[in-house]
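Table S2 (text version). Query chain:
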Amino acid sequence: MKRYGKYIIVAVMVAVLCITSITSGINVNAEDATKPVEIISIDYDNMTISLRGEDDTEFYISDSRQKVWEKVHTTGKNGSMVMDISWISDVRSYDLYIKGNSSTKPVKVTIPSVYTGFQVTYDNISGTVAYNGVPSGFDGNIQWRVKGSYVWHDTLDNTQARAALAESLSCYTNTEHATTVYFRLGQNIGRSDILTGSRQSNEVTIILPKKEAIPVVEVDNHSMSATIQGQASYRLKGQERWEHGSSIDLKKTAPKAFYSNDNPLPVDQLIEIRKDATKTEGASASAFIRLNAPAPGDANTNTVAENLSYTGGSRARAAVKTSISFGNRMKVSTATAISVLETNYDNNQIRLGMNGNEMAFYSTDMVNWYAIGNAGGTGNNVYMDTSWLNDSIDNTIYIKGDAASEPDKYQTVVIPKRNTAVKAVFDKSSPPESPKLTVTGKGSAVQIEWRKKNTQEWNKVAATSDDVFIPELEELRTKGARIVVRASAVNASDAGAGILPSNECTVLVPKRPAAPVLRINPSAFTVNTSTAMEYYDTTTSKWNECKKSMSVWDIPAVKKITQATKDTPGADTSVMFRKKATGTNGCSQPVTILFKGQKAAPVIGFLETCDVVYSYETRTVGGLKNMYHTLKFKKATSKQQYQYVVLSKSDTFDETKANWKTVKSATTVTLKSKKAVTGSKIYVRVKGVSPDRNKNTAAELPSVTNTTFEIPAP
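Corresponding structure-token output:
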């Protein structure tokens, strides 16, 4: 520490005294430490730690060296406090130390690095995935999501789960382009400072190749056969076994759709046709033939084959549908037109009500129709993936069912193009109480969304103007962070209009400027403030401008609470300081200094019950009589040192400039000064304490000085 003459500015460095800056810490004696802060959970999806401390109102963090402590901004939630850890790197483990203003014993939390050994392979032919590099003992979920969606789906590594996953992935393949799917090992949430869990693994990418077009299929209702252009495979829908060939005997393939003495109750049947996958290419999109069975017991009406995948026109993707006349056939099915229940632009899905249909189909031209897979459908609902659409243009989609497939029963959904005009800037001069994000180009969106750069959980915020105030962003300014911003989607409850999420833009939320480095001078009773700083007055709830090198007694809370009287000690109090905002930068991080309560004046007198006992005696040395004065310091120790000074009647007492002598143990001092004569005054006080960074002790002001004792006449 730099010395300034004989008066050392024995400050409490911000690393020891304060709360909130890179050079900040806590002004609490080590011996006052209680039990450590309790770690409730560590959520790696949101990159937050939930913690609780007994009587703690503020929390601080440090690295493994524990030399610099920073106050962190926390948010109360479910009886605990939540702090951000998104600034911690994912490439190596990090030892984080946490403590509170009451729970001052640091607790160590090791944040693990991201595991990078996870691998995934995809088999085009079977449509299945295989996992490698799963750590031994991992008991979490494997997770996957489709590019364009931030919704992670859980799966497991077993036969049943792999089969279900293959079915789900098939619903995301299309004839327009390849589909990117991400996999990772999901987090194991940390439960304590010891059981810290594990982060998500690295994300692994697989590519679902785009499908070939629907095979060209011609249906002949006279011979009850179908001809496939080129070699393909076909099966009765629902069966696992595929047959190979270029022609299909419909009666042989789906006998239950035809009336006979052995089958008096025929039922409608669906036949699926596709080109097989190869090692480099996926299977084609499937064509479907519906066999419309006659009414039960109707021996006079023929079964009619219907090509559900083609409705006439161009032969580019399917053959011309054979003209069908149902005659007087009474359909048993009570299916009605498919309902569009919701268009979810967040997840790129349309939720459909099947209304008695077994299958749903979509088309963009009302000629070629593609089956809609059940990607997560439940009950009577099916979900259609729309991530393959070109989001730079408006898209019109037509939807029909297999049993209710007439043109008058088509449903129409318009997916609008994506807004790409959104821009966002963080106002770094905005105050801590209302961090401001300016977002332009939102269009008709009434909400914006933001997320931390390294997380995928979106937070929605109302945005009725370009200026959006987000209190949570202040939590990120301890270390600084990058966030991703977009205008929110507006989902439609039916086939009505909605809004896609806008383009995403990355915004820097800078860390606040470092807190001022403040030092207390116990001898001069000053704090090295400047006019560029301000302090917080809890009485008025306002920030007040500091003076240059303020006296501690100029701070209302310190004078009111900390200052002692002759007989009554003061109490501890804390005061926040910060650098004032400028035209281009906001205020700095605050630093909180603990002013320990000043001690009352020690008692000096003749009685043994006094703190300092005065006595004198007359000695004859060399024939001369002299009076010898002594001070017995009964309570002086190395931790509570005393000081004294003797001044004559003509001297002016100034405790900030007096030549104090220090007593470091319980001992008797003989006053040898020429000033130790009748009428001189003896001043005694408890010495102020300089900070000790290694012991984490704070500075203490000297006690009130006893100014009433005068050396008596012999």
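Notes on Table S2: Residues 1-33, 313-332 have pLDDT under 50 and may be disordered. The longest strand covers residues 225-236.
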